[in-house]
Amino acid sequence: xxxxxxxxxxxxxxxxxxxxxxxxxxxxxxxxxxxxxxxxxxxxxxxxxxxxxxxxxxxxxxxxxxxxxxxxxxxxxxxxxxxxxxxxxxxxxxxxxxxxxxxxxxxxxxxxxxxxxxxxxxxxx
Length: 125
What we know:
By secondary structure, the chain is mainly alpha-helical. The chain contains six helices and no strands. The longest helix has 34 residues, at 54-87. The relative contact order is 0.12.
């Protein structure tokens, strides 16, 4: 079973920070950001360094939220385009959509989705 991701609290905290509320750098928030950073392709070392100050933690939080949102948008759009290509019988273009995602995506979950899609199309013409 896949690891459960806690991205909604990250998105909620990011909305608060974007609305001008200072981030309360509690142990719980630090733990959330420490868990989330590698889930969005940020190294443990970079996360730990960012958590040394509220400004750093806020920047880390906003970067995590940005990667979640932008990666999600990218993979959903690519999946839709790939589906249209597959329905038209153009499996090369469908596969290229997933390769394009893999060329730029840093969020492991979204990379895994693209890799799974490529694997599913391996037997197609």
